[in-house]
Amino acid sequence: MLPDESRSSAERPPEGGPPGCYRHPRTPTGISCTRCERPICPQCMVAASVGFQCPDCVGGGHAGTRRATTRFGGALAVDGGLVTKLLVGTNVVVWLLAAYVLAPRLGQTWSLFSAGRDILGGPAGIADGPDQWYRLLTATFLHLEWWHIGLNMLVLFWLGPPLEEALGRLRFLALYLLSGLGGSTFAFLVAGDWMNSVGASGAVFGLIGATIVMQLRSRGPLAPAMAFLVFNLIVTFSRPGIDWRAHIGGLVLGGLTAAGLMYAPRERRGLVQGLAVAGAVAIEAAMLLIGMSLYGA
Hints:
By secondary structure, this protein is mainly alpha-helical.
């Protein structure tokens, strides 16, 4: 039996005319797919660099191509600094609310406050238990002075876009949040018996550490990033009222997380990067639990 004999007479193209489309047999066409040479009608043809292709060949061709990614495996985006802008905007909105709309309540309920069991009325704040652990994150978005948020957001807006472009949005956001939480949990571990601080400095120091790791990984100029780190460390330890614990914790956790994200081998990148993020979370959880054993109820 010939191939055309399996079709009903309603499906066959007119006798002596052009062949019918392989997907719409009743539609005659003079165009063939440049890859498989099957006849395709205008409804099915897909423009290619040379001629036209059928949907099946186009789908098969795309299945074999690799998705374009950022340097360290993230999804490419048109706006490489979108997450940075959203973080800056979130911090500014929280500052306006805390300073002018919900003052002083928001500052009191969102700050990195902790009083241990040996303090009169304690434990309170983070040391009081899981219901207060949200402060570890909310404090990283809370600022009460214009100069404080101004300096932090300036550094975030400067360092954020290059890191976001290299890592991709999701990895960059994870780096920022883990750096902030690293600063908070280390501060609680060291001074959870009596502490009260605010600010995104831990997250910002994490970005400084990540920038140094990126320069090492790409063998770029390291001196500017190191000089910026040294300057900020001098300010941290020379001025009263600055929570150096949050700065150091954010710097270390940000650097470690960035190393796991940026040095992951290409063939096992997803697995290694996932383990790096999970490892950072585990370190922060361990610091929190040790702090609770020292200061909590």
